[in-house]
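Re-running Acyl-CoA dehydrogenase to confirm reproducibility after the cluster update. Everything else is unchanged from the original entry.
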Amino acid sequence: MDFQPDPGLESFRQEVRQFLQTKVPADLKGLQRCTRSPREQIMRWQKILDAQGWGAPYWAKEHGGTGWSVPQILVFDDECTAAGAPTQDGFVQKMLGPVLNAFATPEQKAEHMPAIFSGERLWCQGFSEPGAGSDLASLRTRAELVKSGDGDHYVVNGQKIWTSYAHHADWIFLLVRTNPEVKKQAGISFLLVDMKSPGVTVRPIRSIDDAHHLNETFFDNVRVPVKNLIGAEGAGWGITKFLLNNEHATTADLPELNRYMRELRQFATKLRAGGERLIDRPEFALKLARLDAELQAIGMLVQRVAKLDQEHNPASHVLGSMLKIRATELQQRITETQIEALGDYGAVCYPHPHEPASDQAYPLQDLARGIANDMFLRRASTIYGGTSEVQRGIIAKMQFQL
Ligand SMILES: Cc1cc2nc3c(=O)[nH]c(=O)nc-3n(C[C@H](O)[C@H](O)[C@H](O)COP(=O)(O)OP(=O)(O)OC[C@H]3O[C@@H](n4cnc5c(N)ncnc54)[C@H](O)[C@@H]3O)c2cc1C
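Result of re-run:
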């Protein structure tokens, strides 16, 4: 793979940068810390992107996307983060959207795509259950088909857990068991469910960063029309593998890693310890250089994995697992080093970015706001999207097969 800078990419970067400078409304800027912007901001930003023709930046042209190459997508994500633009709905852009493009009927696309592009409908992912996380195929949420005069429908009963942003979502894509009699993978189906359906209850789980991202989601005799089944009944496991295999390169969250590193460099040049700038202390400068070198290596691996993904090369699975482990561990180390750099002010002082500013002044307050939340939240990055232990198992098996 050629890692040399591409001059064409530089003009694309300038185009994106200029768009962001003029089109990100001032009141939406800079609130991106802690994984996701509030619901209204995501919706407003999606409308702006859609008006520019960038409503689906990661999809092929034939599906209404931008048709950007992998390096262009990486530039777009990086520039959006650097500009402090609001986040998009990753569940729909990176997970559900590609599934609908590949498996949905024309009627299903006609029902859901317009609201996805215009940002009027946000989604969440209902996969994990209390007894089914790493071993997802053991899921027990049951969907029973009922034939009736006023339209065939499924009746869904069960519980999902760790449903990120279910409290902001209009719809959920849900894995359900439609047949308990067959091999566990063969009895799973993929359903789309309106969160306003009677019988859906969302209860918050507060996470270690003291914020509300996570939920338990309960389904109590929820009636779901058969037209909301994606693919055939029992085909849900194949669709899930397609969905999970699409996100290898994105699990690294490279734009966020780049942002953490930019911030850490600023801390190192602006903060002092014992009268000396941190960057002038050899042990801190060495630590910074090591983190930077690892980040450069991850940047190259991201490009490689994304290219393999685009070529549908199965080597992306094992490299994607390696990338997931190394990138999420680096997220944890850089955010911990940020807290360390802030010294006595460290973890406890900085208010959450979505809460009103306090009167007390902290060093580099604008830059460091919400920093402890980020550090705590990153503890979970080695769990979600497949734990590090599970990724190591995948790597071990793949090496054995080579
Ligand atoms: C912040 C966050 C957001 C999330 N968002 C969502 C979401 O939006 N939607 C959703 O559906 N899910 C979501 N999840 C759930 C996530 O996918 C699961 O937490 C993850 O798959 C692990 O499953 P588990 O929590 O049940 O742990 P378990 O699978 O019970 O694992 C417990 C421990 O056992 C280890 N272990 C399990 N199996 C193996 C094995 N085969 N080999 C070695 N070690 C093993 C694990 O590594 C872990 O240390 C989220 C999780 C977090 C933390």
